[in-house]
């Protein structure tokens, strides 16, 4: 190519870039602003790409700042107000596509008849008798394991422990036993599955909010091919091997009795159920169901327990009030009678109020990407068209003054207690920690019970203190995790 030809080509490219920059002065290429919908200003052609990349480690805090700067409840494809027409919104195609390699067509990643059948099958284990006996017994037994093998030793040796990591192991052990009849004992030994499970979730979430992550991660894996660090493909192999081993073991076991079947065995129910095509579930279908329910049953409870105790350590007044209520309702030895323990938990108003305040400010699922089935108008007047993707933001909603008033960012359990001393039930569109509409959390009562049983038995026996110099930060994933865990010291009471 001659000098003049090269110069002409560069001039042409410059002219095209200049024309595009004039057409897209504050947004990404081919992105069009919706009329009457606020939006943050971005860079010509690139839009918010660089800003999102810069803030990817504090994604939900970054979104809250935009809501506050624009003084709005909706901007671009992000909103705090989907109610009251929640049933008009399915899981978005982008979410389902990104997570399909991990979750397949499981309940967390599907809609329609497939979702309804899975929900109906799973719902059969969530009844009061199971809460009072089977569930509570499993929770108590694993709390005793956790106490004897971890907390007592940490207290005796004055050694710091990662509370968040322990909660993830605790909820993994309890949920896998409850739902699938398998004891993995991750509290007592290293389980490779858990590390890979978390790594895949982190990777997929990053890919969802920052599409270039998939490319940059692949480059890193290629450049570090001699590294001991596992690739996403290797993590997926570990997860699949773990789950398929469970399925293989269960298929080889003799049929359970009718009495055992109607207790807690979620996997057996799915093995007996039929999918939306009228066929029995394949091993792949069962694999998808197991992973989806572990996300729902293990991660959400572990994150909430961790943020609960984070705030207990942060606010001594709240810890003292919780202890007063524990003294009133939880006598020594009550854990040996799980029916009485269950009934006592239901009476603990202040404990429930603290839990709801934790969920308001630290929702287990901080963001939820949806897609409109029909045209709609959000409560703030924003027009949504069929096929539009919109991300509902519980994390931002719980901290926004337009929703919760001037004290929105304050941790105040008292906001949940009426003048008569009763728990206040917030409007379904205001408090959505357990989701809303037809997809309201199926296991919310089980999660509440597990969290409060763990809280009362641990707080009754131990005092937890923050490890000096350790900063607790958000890790932005499908669930609101802790980036570097939560190091604490343990003292026996």
Summarize the structure.
With 493 residues, the chain is of the alpha+beta class.
Secondary structure layout:
Layout (H helix, E strand, L loop, with lengths): L2 H21 L25 H6 L4 H12 L3 E2 L2 E2 L9 E3 L1 H11 L8 H12 L4 H30 L3 E2 H18 L11 H18 L2 H12 L8 H21 L5 H4 L4 H7 L10 H32 L1 H14 L8 H9 L2 H13 L6 E5 L3 E2 L5 E2 L4 E4 L1 H6 L1 H4 L39 H18 E5 L7 E3 L3 E3 L4 E6 L1
Helix pairs in contact: 4-8, 6-7, 6-15, 6-19, 7-13, 8-9, 8-10, 10-13, 13-14, 13-16, 13-19
Description:
Belongs to the cytochrome P450 family. It holds the Pfam family p450. Helix 6 (128-157) runs parallel beside helix 19. This protein has helices at 3-23, 49-54, 59-70, 93-103, 112-123, 128-157, 163-180, 192-209, 212-223, 232-252, 258-261, 266-272, 283-314, 316-329, 338-346, 349-361, 394-399, 401-404, 444-461, and strands at 74-75, 78-79, 89-91, 161-162, 368-372, 376-377, 383-384, 389-392, 462-466, 474-476, 480-482, 487-492. The chain is globular. The chain is built from 19 helices and twelve strands.
Provide the descriptors you would attach to this structure in a database record.
single chain, five-stranded mixed β-sheet, 493 residues, globular, 12 strands, three-stranded antiparallel β-sheet, 19 helices, alpha+beta, Cytochrome p450, 8% strand
Strand fraction: 5-15%
CATH architecture: Orthogonal Bundle
Radius of gyration: 24 Å
Strands, count: 12
Roughly how much helix do the residues carry, as a percent range? 40-55%
Low-confidence segments, given as residue ranges, are none
How many discrete domains? 1
What's the CATH C level?
A: Mainly Alpha
- Largest beta sheet: strand ordering: 1-2-8-5-3
Q: Per CATH, what is the topology?
A: Cytochrome p450
Output the CATH homologous superfamily. Cytochrome P450
Protein name: Cytochrome P450
Family: Belongs to the cytochrome P450 family.
Keywords: Heme, Iron, Metal-binding, Monooxygenase, Oxidoreductase, Signal
Pfam family, one: p450
């Amino acid at each position: 190519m001659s000098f003049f030809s090269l110069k002409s080509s560069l001039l042409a490219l410059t002219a095209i870039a200049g024309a595009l920059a004039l057409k897209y002065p504050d947004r990404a290429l081919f992105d069009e602003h919706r009329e009457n919908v606020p939006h943050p200003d971005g860079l010509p052609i690139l839009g918010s790409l660089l800003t999102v990349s810069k803030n990817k480690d504090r994604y939900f805090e970054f979104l809250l700042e935009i809501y506050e700067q624009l003084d709005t409840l909706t901007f671009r494809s992000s909103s705090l107000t989907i109610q009251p027409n929640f049933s008009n919104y399915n899981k978005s195609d982008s979410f389902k596509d990104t997570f399909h390699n991990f979750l397949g067509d499981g309940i967390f990643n599907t809609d329609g008849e497939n979702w309804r059948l899975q929900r109906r099958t799973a719902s059969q284990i969530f009844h009061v008798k199971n809460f009072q006996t089977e569930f509570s017994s499993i929770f108590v037994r694993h709390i005793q394991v956790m106490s004897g093998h971890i907390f007592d030793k940490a207290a005796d040796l004055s050694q710091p422990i990662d509370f968040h990591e322990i909660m993830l192991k605790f909820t993994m052990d309890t949920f896998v036993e409850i739902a699938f009849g398998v004891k993995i004992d991750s509290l007592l030994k290293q389980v490779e599955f858990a590390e890979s499970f978390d790594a895949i979730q982190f990777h997929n979430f990053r890919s969802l909010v920052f599409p270039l992550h998939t490319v940059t991660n692949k480059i890193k894996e290629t450049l570090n091919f001699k590294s001991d660090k596992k690739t996403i493909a290797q993590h997926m192999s570990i997860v699949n091997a773990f789950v398929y081993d469970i399925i293989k073991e269960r298929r080889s076991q003799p049929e359970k009795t009718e009495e055992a079947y109607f207790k807690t065995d979620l996997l057996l129910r799915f093995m007996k159920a039929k999918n939306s095509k009228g066929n029995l579930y394949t091993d792949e279908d069962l694999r998808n169901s197991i992973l989806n329910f572990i996300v729902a049953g293990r991660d959400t409870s572990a994150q909430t327990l961790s943020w609960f105790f984070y705030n207990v350590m942060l606010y001594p007044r709240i810890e003292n009030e919780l202890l007063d209520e524990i003294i009133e309702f939880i006598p020594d030895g009550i854990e040996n009678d799980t029916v009485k323990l269950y009934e006592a938990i239901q009476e603990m108003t202040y404990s429930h109020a603290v839990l709801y305040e934790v969920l308001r400010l630290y929702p287990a699922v901080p963001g939820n990407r949806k897609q409109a089935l029909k045209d709609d108008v959000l409560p703030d007047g924003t027009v949504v068209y069929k096929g539009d993707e919109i991300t509902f933001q519980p994390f931002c909603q719980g901290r926004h003054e337009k929703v919760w008033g001037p004290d929105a960012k304050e941790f105040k359990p008292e906001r949940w207690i009426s003048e008569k001393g009763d728990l206040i039930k917030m409007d379904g569109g205001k408090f959505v920690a357990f989701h809303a509409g037809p997809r309201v959390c199926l296991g919310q009562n089980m999660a509440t019970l597990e969290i409060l049983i763990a809280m009362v038995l641990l707080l009754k026996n131990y005092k937890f203190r923050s490890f000096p110099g350790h900063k607790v930060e958000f890790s932005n994933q499908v669930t609101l995790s802790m980036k570097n865990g939560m190091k604490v010291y343990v003292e026996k009471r």
